[in-house]
Amino acid sequence: GFVLTELAAVVDTLRIANRVSAQPPFSWAYRSSKGGPIASSSLAYVESEPFSDKPNADYVFVIGNSDQANPHLSLGSEIAAYTYRNAQVFLLAEAASRYIKDRGEHAVGLTTHWENSAVLREKDGLYDAEYAIASEDGLVVTCAGMGTTLDVALSVIGRHIPSAAKM
Hints:
Number of strands: 7
Order of helices and strands: HEEEEHEHHEEHH
Structural class: alpha/beta
Shape: globular
Helix content: 25-40%
Strand content: 15-25%
């Protein structure tokens, strides 16, 4: 049930950055708990590989889905494995909400999509979820997701390509 808009915002931004760069700086892989085909909420499928025990990535984007309470979005051990190896982890929309919910009172200053933020406030009593596009907590970045995913992806590519190419 992942959000296709978020996946496209990340992958197309990286793909286009590669296209306009003399030496393409980005590659990517699709990962999931078990590997295999994963369906979006619009029934587009992506073939994935299982998470690695020793991940090797600079950045990780965890795409949201339609249910912030989904237990499959609790990726504590995977997040720890990536951040231990100095990867920056971006949690989008529902994935950010799940991270905030899992962190409970330690989730100060984190953000998620505005709809999810309202649910966290009303249902779960977490009133400190922010209304920002992204918030950093060390190597973990919680993000609003959906359309703002493009802003986050542009920020990432801006670290690796000249601003003229980014434009």
